[in-house]
Amino acid sequence: MQKNTFIAVITIAALVFMTACTGRQANVDVNNGVTINNFIVTPAEARDGEFVLFDVEFENTGGTTASNVQIELFGVEGQWRDSFGNLLTSTQARTYGRMERPRPENNVPGDLKIAQFNFMTPNIPQGIAPSLPVEARVSFDYNTSGHMKLFVLNEDEFRRRQALQQATEQAEIINSAGPIKLSVPERFITNPMVLGSNDEEETLPLMIQFMNVGNGFPITPEYNGQIIGMGGKLTGQIELFGPPGVEFADCLGVSGGRSIDINDAQIPLRIRDSGTVPIACSLKINKAQWGTRPIDSIQLVFNIFYRYYVYSRADVTVIGE
Question: Which CATH superfamily is domain 26-140+310-319 in?
Answer without folding.
Answer: Immunoglobulins (2.60.40.10)
